[in-house]
């Protein structure tokens, strides 16, 4: 089931039919090859229209989608429909998957509980740090900085999104240098530490780099999930390397920032979760990111929650990022009550 925000010169009901057709068994014109039996079996159902808020909800038969193929699903639900002439603006707000479809993917190998089990931290937040500058340090400088960060109580250190295999900081050198000092930091602090190495690249390079991390004793890798693609995240997860997989959302604002067009962060997160990226971590991270980029809106939401007796640190990230708060109509409703 999908939830779209839709703007068109056509009445909402007519435009919704166009969306449902183009994303499934129809196209821009009548089809002599489409019989009534097929239409009855595979045709999607528009089950909710909210004219005031321009919301369209569509349910699709599962047979329209190849199990275990996230790329095919996106081609249907977030593909040509965005290019239709009858559409002024279209935003994919939410996707709900049937369990059978979710079961066709492996899902997270660890999840937040698995990360906690490895670090042996159960009664406090996990504390992470990102190396800055993003690029420019040598492998030895990267390792030394990570070491100092770990000694100061940080649990997890990670590469940033654009650091891969650079002339001044070779990937394999960085892995060796960082893991060597990680062992020393663990011995001094008497606590487990994690470094997340960015393996972003074509699928063959990502796999080779992940294997290097595993061979040298690393436990976590990262890919830029927007630029690499969800299918490559799926490919990496299928290798069952026993590594924690972190998905970095660099580039998401190309299609999530405009509140009237593209895809909501919620939709992207649900897709990422289906491909093996830890769901709870993503909700929390996404709320922090959204709060940074749209600070005025989330300050308003925080005031609204506080008026209800809920402190910002205690809010449910998934709920706040949902349609009732982070969509255009949801935010309008919240702000009108303050």
Protein described:
By secondary structure, the protein is an alpha/beta fold. The protein has 3 domains: 2-102, Alpha-Beta Plaits; 106-251, Alpha-Beta Barrel (TIM Barrel); 253-338, no CATH class. The protein contains 16 helices and 10 strands. The strands form 2 sheets. It has a 5-stranded mixed sheet. The chain has a 5-stranded parallel sheet with strand order 5-6-7-8-9, sandwiched between helices. β7, α8 (203-215) and β8 form a beta-alpha-beta unit. It is globular and about 70 Å long. The two termini are 32 Å apart.
Topology:
Layout (H helix, E strand, L loop, with lengths): L1 E6 L4 H11 L13 H7 L2 E6 L4 E5 L10 H8 L11 E7 L3 H4 L8 H9 L8 E3 L8 H13 L4 E3 L12 H19 L4 E5 L4 H13 L4 E5 H4 L1 H9 L5 E5 L4 H4 L5 E2 L1 H10 L4 H15 L1 H13 L9 H4 L7 H8 L3
Parallel strand pairs: 4-10, 5-6, 6-7, 7-8, 8-9
Antiparallel strand pairs: 1-3, 1-4, 2-3
Shape, please?
A: globular
Total tally of structural domains? 3
Q: What is the rounded Rg? A: 22 Å
Q: How many strands?
A: 10
Return residue spans where pLDDT drops below 50 for at least 5 consecutive residues. none
- What structural category arises from helix and sheet content? alpha/beta
- What CATH calls the topology of the largest domain is TIM Barrel
Q: Which architecture of the largest domain per CATH?
A: Alpha-Beta Barrel
CATH class group of the largest domain: Alpha Beta
Largest sheet: 5 strands, mixed
Cα separation of the termini: 32 Å
How much of the sequence is in beta strands? 5-15%
Q: What level of helicity do the residues show?
A: 40-55%
Separate helix tally: 16
Strand order of the largest sheet: 2-3-1-4-10
Mean pLDDT: 88
């Amino acid at each position: 089931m999908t939830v779209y925000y839709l703007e068109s010169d056509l009445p909402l009901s007519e435009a919704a039919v166009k969306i449902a057709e183009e994303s499934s068994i129809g196209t821009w014109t009548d089809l002599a090859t489409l019989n009534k039996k097929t239409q009855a079996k595979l045709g999607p159902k528009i089950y909710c229209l909210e004219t005031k808020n321009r919301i369209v909800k569509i349910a699709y038969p599962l047979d329209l989608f190849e199990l275990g193929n996230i790329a095919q699903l996106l081609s249907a639900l977030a593909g040509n429909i965005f290019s239709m002439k009858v559409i002024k603006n279209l935003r994919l707000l939410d996707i709900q998957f049937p369990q059978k479809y979710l079961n066709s993917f492996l899902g997270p190998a660890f999840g937040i509980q698995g990360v906690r089990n490895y670090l042996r931290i159960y009664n406090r937040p996990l504390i992470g740090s990102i190396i800055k500058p993003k690029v420019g340090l040598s492998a030895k400088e990267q390792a030394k900085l990570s070491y100092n960060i770990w000694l100061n109580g940080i649990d997890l250190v990670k590469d940033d999104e654009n650091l891969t295999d650079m002339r001044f900081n070779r990937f394999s050198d960085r892995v060796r240098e960082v893991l060597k000092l990680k062992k020393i930091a663990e011995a001094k602090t008497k606590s487990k530490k994690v470094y997340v190495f960015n393996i972003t690249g074509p699928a063959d390079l990502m796999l080779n780099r992940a294997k290097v991390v595993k061979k040298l004793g690393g436990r976590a890798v990262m890919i830029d999930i927007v630029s690499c693609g969800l299918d490559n995240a799926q490919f990496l997860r299928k290798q069952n390397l026993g590594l924690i997989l972190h998905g970095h959302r660099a580039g998401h604002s190309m299609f999530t920032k405009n509140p009237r067009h593209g895809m909501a962060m919620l939709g992207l997160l649900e897709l990422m979760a289906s491909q093996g990226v830890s769901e709870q971590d993503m909700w929390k991270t996404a709320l922090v990111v959204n709060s940074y980029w749209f600070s005025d809106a989330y300050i308003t939401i925080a005031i609204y929650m506080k008026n209800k007796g809920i402190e910002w640190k205690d809010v449910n990230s998934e709920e706040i990022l949902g349609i009732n708060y982070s969509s255009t109509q949801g935010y309008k409703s919240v702000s009108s009550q303050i």
